[in-house]
Amino acid sequence: MKFINENSEAFNHQVEKSNQLKGKTLHIQVLSEDKDKVNIKIPLSLSKFFLKKDSKITQTIQNKHQIDLEEVLNIIETQEIGDLIDIESSNGDIVKIFIR
Fold first, then answer.
1. CB neighbour class for 7 (10 Å; exposed up to 12, middle 13-18, buried from 19)
2. Exposed e or buried b for every residue in 30-47, given b needs 16+ CB within 10 A?
3. What distance in Å separates the CA atoms of residue 61 and residue 64, rounded to the nearest whole number?
4. So where are the chain's domains?
5. What pLDDT sits at residue 62?
6. What is the three-class DSSP state of 83?
7. pLDDT truncated to tens, each residue of the chain (100 aa)?
8. Residues 47, 53, 56: CA angle, nearest 5 degrees
9. Structure confidence at residue 96 (pLDDT)
């Protein structure tokens, strides 16, 4: 019976977390040293699809700003609402990734 109880608690925790993040948005903001701006808002439910998609934006975030989007996906699954990444590089690029 203890095994069932532990699984039930883990399941209930996952359901609570899922409900808490329901309707939330993943925000990705980039301001480059050249004053180029990227401001992306993605429903959290679509964030896995978007971040795994091989697009120019995701490639830029990964290559130019050296952010591992696979790690961001892992953080999204374990993180509560709030800031995930906030970086200001030495050349003046600013990258922010957060959930609201």
1. exposed
2. bbbeeeeeeeeeeebeeb
3. 6
4. 24-99
5. 78
6. strand
7. 444 555 677 656 555 656 666 788 889 898 888 888 989 898 887 887 777 767 777 777 777 777 887 788 777 777 667 888 898 988 888 989 898 8
8. 110
9. 92
* Residue type, position 11, single letter: F
Bridge partners of 29, per DSSP, are 39, 96
Give, in degrees to the nearest 5, the angle at Cα 19 between 61 and 15. 105
Give the pLDDT confidence score for residue 1 in this predicted structure: 46
What is the number of helices (H) and of strands (E) in the chain?
4, 4
CB atoms near residue 53 (< 10 Å): 11
What's the CA gap between 90 and 65, in Å, rounded? 11
Q: Residue 25: which region, alpha, beta or left (left: phi > 0; alpha: psi -120 to 50)?
A: beta
Q: What length is written for the chain?
A: 100
